[in-house]
Amino acid sequence: LGLLFMPYIGAAQEINADVNIDRSQISGTSLGYIDNLPQQLETYINDHNWTNERFSENERINVNLQINLLAVQNYSFEAQIIIRSQRPIYNTPRETVTLLFNDEDWNFEYQPNQTFLHDELQFNRLTSLIDFYVYLIMGYDADTFESLGGSDYYQQAQNILSLAQSTSAVGWSRSGSRQNRAQLVTNLLQNNHEPFRVALYEYHRQGLDQFLDAPSQARQKMLGALEKIQQTQRQTSSNLLFDTFFNAKYREITAIFEDAEPDVRLEAYNLLSDIDQSHMSEYEKLQ
Fold first, then answer.
1. Residue 13 CB neighbour total at 10 angstroms
2. How many other β-carbons are positioned within 10 Å of the β-carbon of residue 62?
3. pLDDT value for 2
4. Which residues pair with 84 in a beta bridge?
5. Per-residue pLDDT at 242 exceeds 60
6. Which residue, 29, 148, 225, 273, could crosslink 202 as a Cys pair with Cβ 3.0–4.6 Å?
7. pLDDT of residue 177
8. Predicted structure pTM score
9. Residue 174 pLDDT class (50, 70, 90 cuts)
10. pLDDT of residue 52
11. Beta-ladder partners of 69
């Protein structure tokens, strides 16, 4: 009888995505069919089983996709997509951003009454990009719960990248703009960036999740994570992973250390002024 009242967690998917589309930069009375795209993408993402893992409803990863349409010709769209994913902070009702990334170089086709099918062996300019970022999101999330836990997901994203690079699709080359999806997943899988990924675990699981119960110890773990990021940064010429991390975290980091003891606050300030000069106006609060 008790089994009848047990929650069934096997049916819950991994992602809880909210998709928004801004088409204010394009015009045309015949573009009303675009209004269906957000709901289609949400169904495509949220109703699919991306792994063989069991996720309970409260474990689903909250994701926001902001798609800004920039131009259209026939049924071909130029777009920008901003990816934001979050995970809960243990023992609190709050969430923390795990990935915040702005991809400015996306072209795709979308026609009225188009349907979406999951087929990761066939490249599609629209759904393959969605698949790519879902795996990146899951990789980042897994890295915050287990040291180097996201490797399999990053490899899935790398497989999609390899498939895309056999086509002429825009935005999949490793060259080009600094904010580059190919560089992002490539860096995540490189051995010399593993300390950065270990830092993701230490910052979130050993630091942020423990902050409410043991703030002093949590801050020390987070300082250790920042030191790992500093060491990794000194061994590479690419800042993409670090910029992505701090764009998501700089206000949170400041808030965590703002009430610390003066010596801890100064240590955080010195580290941050070395590894993330782009947000110094925020870090000045730590002096």
1. 17
2. 17
3. 38
4. 64, 100
5. yes
6. 225
7. 58
8. 0.93
9. confident
10. 84
11. 79
CA 202, 205, 208, 210 dihedral sign is negative
Helix (H, G, I), strand (E, B) or coil at 172: coil
Q: How do the residues of the chain divide into helix, strand and coil, expressed in percent and rounded to 5?
A: 50, 15, 30
Q: What is the spatial distance between Cα 222 and Cα 97, in angstroms, rounded to a whole number? A: 16
Q: How many C-beta atoms surround the C-beta of residue 34 within 10 A?
A: 18
pLDDT averaged over every residue in the chain = 92
Burial of 227 (0-12, 13-18, 19+ CB in 10 A): middle
Tokens (6 digits) for 163: 């498939």
Tokens coding 29: 């009375």
Measured CA to CA, the distance from residue 8 to residue 56 in angstroms comes to 8
CA distance 203 to 209: 9
| 110/113 Cα distance (integer angstroms) | 9
Amino acid letter for position 6: M
Cβ density class 236-256: b for 16+ within 10 Å, e for less = eebebbbebbbbbbbeebbeb
* 97 backbone dihedrals φ, ψ, rounded to 5°: -75, 130
* Residue range 26-61, pLDDT digits in tens: 987 789 999 999 999 999 999 999 998 877 777 889
Res. 91: pLDDT tops 90: no
